Amino acid sequence: MPILTTHFTPSLPFKSAHFNTLYRPLFMKDECNYSRKRITTWDNDFIDLDFSCIGSKTLILLIHGLEGSSNSNYMITTANELNKHCYDAVCMNLRGCSGEDNLLLGTYHSGKTDDIDFVINYLTSNYTYDNIIICGFSLGGNLTLKYLGEYSSIPTEVKGGIAVSVPIDLTSSQAELGKLKNKIYMKEFLRTMKLKILEKSEKFPDFELNKELLFKASKFKHIEKQFTVPVFGFKSSEDYWKRASCKPFIPKIQHKALLINALDDSFLSEKCFPTKFAENMDNFYLMMPKYGGHVGFISSFTGENRWLENKIVHFIKEYLNIHSNKQ
To answer: Is 186 helix (H, G, I), strand (E, B) or coil?
Structure first.
């Protein structure tokens, strides 16, 4: 019954889910010395990979969340902590998220695992790592778990996955995000997404965009109807949520995988805490700390604040049994 207990006890202000969620992106200013590698995709686009390496035989592929990048604080702090424990890290910037717009009309979405598969195969074909672990945050965590359950021909170098703050059921979680309590987050997500879609409409004049409706969009469904559904060939937003959610794929996962979802995460619905899966699967681990917010897990104003990063490293060492080593 792999439900892992935890004792994350933050100081008083960080017991507020919203405070914890906002503190990391607004006030934590960590840095990482990346080395960028641009790779050309099968469809003549590109994906930017940012490496932070110390010469290990183990590589952790980090995947950011919605409208994030390798410069998102949780990506930087995780890469730094992995390096500290003698693991290499590579941050995958999803299409259109690396600071430069991608070449095609299509960018990324919650279920676009073909890009994950492409990057994994690129890494195994061009590098000599003994072990690769995938670690995704929020949308990136959905991609991680979906990939592990969806693909039957995963390279043997891939040993497992870790997913943090994941809306595993998109239908219910998008409804949760649409509530008043999440208005500040929704407003920021939509602001950057609208700008990107407008830029795409300038580059691709044949793309039919109703700018008036785009400007009025106040929910993900409005954006998806304008962009995700027609560009990626979904029938509707409901069809997209159903097909892109990782939840149905979790029982099919053959590797060891960990999901860390805080119980106070305002982005997540009750359906995003799959206790039954964890109780009935030997290889799927679930950790549900009482506090943490959405990709927050900060405990105080001072100190290292590496609870989340330490849990990721601990799972790699103790459950995947991959201890740090150098080439």
So the answer is: helix
pLDDT in tens, 261-279: 999 999 999 999 999 999 9
Amino acid at 30: D
3-class SS of residue 254: coil
Cα–Cα distance measured from residue 304 to residue 112, given in angstroms and rounded to the nearest whole number: 34
Domain ranges of the chain: 3-169+246-319, 178-244
* 3-169+246-319 CATH pick, 2.40.10.270, 3.10.290.10, 3.40.50.1820, 3.40.50.2300: 3.40.50.1820
**Contact status, residue 109 vs residue 143, Cβ threshold 8 Å:** no
Q: Are 182 and 199 in contact (CB under 8 A)?
A: no
Q: pTM here?
A: 0.98
Q: Which stretches of the chain drop beneath a pLDDT of 50?
A: none
The CA distances from residue 177 to 108, 174, 190, 261, 263, in Å, are 19, 5, 12, 15, 15
